[in-house]
Amino acid sequence: MNNQDIARIFYSIAEILEIQGENPFKIRAYIKAAQTVESYTKELSEIKDTEELKDLPGIGEKIALKIKELLETGKLEMYEKLKKSEFAPLVELLEVPGMGPKHVRLVYDELGIKTLDQLEKAARRGKLKELPGLGEKTEQNILKGIEQERRHKERYPIGEILPKAESVISQLQKAREVKDISLGGSLRRMKETIGDVDILVSSLKPKAVSDAFVKLTEVQNILSQGPTKSSIVTKDGIQMDLRVVKPESYGAAQHYFTGSKAHNIRIRSLGIDRGLKVNEYGVFKGKKSVAGKTEEEVFKSVGLTYIPPEMREDWGEIEAAQKKKLPHLIELKDIQGDLHIHSNWTDGRSTIEEMAKAAQKIGYQYIALCDHSPTIGVTNGLTPERLEKRKKEIDRLNRKFKNFKILNGIEVDIKPDGKTDLDDEILKKLDIVVGAVHTRFSLPKEEMTRRIIKAIENPCVHIIAHPTGRLLGKRDPYEVDMDKLLDAARANQKIMELNAFPARLDLNDLHCRKAKEKGVKVVISTDAHWTEHLHWIKYGIATARRGWLEPEDVVNTLSLEKLLKYLK
Ligand code: DGT
Ligand code: CA
Ligand code: CA
């Protein structure tokens, strides 16, 4: 039972309780616990003492006992009972945007609807709008929601998949028969969404490896099993494909199964031009193998320098490698600080001091504390009075820390008319102002574009946060003209954020590339609401690398001194 398993069970409990109409506080408690557990970097199974569990945010006495039961027995009695409830199958309906627990109950109680298909049929026949409190418009929204849900279901956000895949890799790694192991496919290329997980192993004893694979506790069912290729579906419904190859083919197989398909086709045709056959077993001249052990060899055999996996999309990387003009992609170690951080002054979970300490531990020189402004409706948005108070706390901490600075910032809401939620007089006093849209996502494209450009033109605003507002797998981006936003950012010397929160990842990869081409600076920020979220920077780095960004394109690679100069 690992953290991901525990989180999945808590989310599932919350959903069933919601449909049962339980007390919202009880439901919140499970959701909070699930969020904590899933993003905690240490495995809970390594914590022996229940008391220690209670130190985690959102985990009290009762939940701690449930975690203990799960870790000790692999089961939770209360959950086993819940799963048998008549409402348990209805959770599928909750995934449809526009279907809250009340609606789910209503369509079940009145029409006996249990599945997405039944819901869709009823909506098409106009049965939903006849129900009390639903109406024509809701019915249409539900239909749209079903369509969106179906589309999103086909792929998973990378943040949901990577921890699970890494856990599988670390388990397989322990098998003696495994020589080398790596991710392949879209996950190795760090695409924002993933269809299935590909894992590649080199071994002299392939059967032992595939046996270990299909016996993992994650496995729900086995789709196929053979010495070189096996596929399973996990309990979360994720397909994982394993390939086992001989050590002399490892590099060629790694290259082939990393893809993308479009990139592979180009490489193969470069091979053909040189009289070489490139496939997953190696690179061959007639029957003779000329490369295959490492990826470097494979690239070299077709006249290329090594291309990092994140770039392998046939988006120009092959031409760049031919000319030896590949960019020097940004890396984790280039990041000097995080410029979009929350604390428990609004909806964050950690204190300012905890956030600062955690950032310092990573090796950062600075963070910018950007709690929310008043109107967005999160708990306790910062009024001018509370901003003053928070400033005192920041000053106190800054006196305490050495070689580290907490910048006094805000994430200020951009209202539908493009004005900021706090007046310029107040914003002017801050070190850094991050503007963001949190409401009225449905504005027409032109209005939304105008709204954000107005914020870009506001001299008090430094950064535009999560510029498309999407939530991967949940909410489509709002309609906005990114070219115009980037042009405005360039003209006003403003910074565009690449939000590393794994459900956001916007700017996306292609936006990053466009920003670079247009000469717009990017900041990679986590939007962390808890110390553990600071590590999500890796998803931002991956997206930036997919967008060909180099350290000099990203402002939070600057030292504190240079950053402060830049912000002025
Ligand atoms: P996904 O799973 O939809 O997120 O995307 P990928 O890229 O992981 O695709 P997947 O899992 O179907 O295949 C893994 C890799 O295997 C893919 O990136 C490239 C390689 N591959 C699969 N099918 C073909 C093919 O027909 N031709 C070539 N050249 N490569 C292929
Ligand atoms: Ca895949
Ligand atoms: Ca696959």
Describe how the helices and strands are arranged.
Layout: H1 3-20, H2 24-39, H3 50-53, H4 61-73, H5 77-83, H6 91-94, H7 101-111, H8 116-124, H9 135-153, E1 156-157, H10 158-173, E2 180-184, H11 185-188, E3 193-194, E4 197-202, H12 206-214, E5 219-224, E6 229-234, E7 239-245, H13 250-258, H14 261-273, E8 277-279, E9 282-285, E10 288-291, H15 295-301, H16 317-322, E11 337-341, H17 352-362, E12 366-372, H18 384-400, E13 405-413, H19 424-427, E14 432-436, H20 445-457, E15 463-464, H21 482-491, E16 495-499, H22 509-518, E17 522-525, H23 537-546, H24 560-567
Parallel strand pairs: 4-7, 11-12, 12-13, 13-14, 14-15, 15-16, 16-17
Antiparallel strand pairs: 1-3, 2-4, 5-6, 6-7, 8-9, 9-10
Helix pairs in contact: 1-2, 1-7, 8-9, 13-15, 20-21, 21-22, 22-23
The chain binds 2'-deoxyguanosine-5'-triphosphate and calcium ion (2 copies).
One calcium ion (CA) binds next to loops.
Could you characterize what this model shows?
- With 568 residues, this protein is α/β, with parallel strands linked by helices.
- It folds into 4 domains: 3-152, Orthogonal Bundle (DNA polymerase, domain 1), CATH 1.10.150; 156-245, Beta Polymerase, domain 2, CATH 3.30.460; 250-322, Beta Polymerase, domain 3, CATH 3.30.210.10; 332-567, Alpha-Beta Barrel (TIM Barrel), CATH 3.20.20.140.
- Helix content is 44%, strand content 14%.
- The chain has 24 helices and 17 strands.
- It has a 7-stranded parallel beta sheet with strand order 11-12-13-14-15-16-17, with helices on one face.
- Helix 1 (3-20) crosses helix 7 and helix 13 crosses helix 15.
- The mean pLDDT is 94.
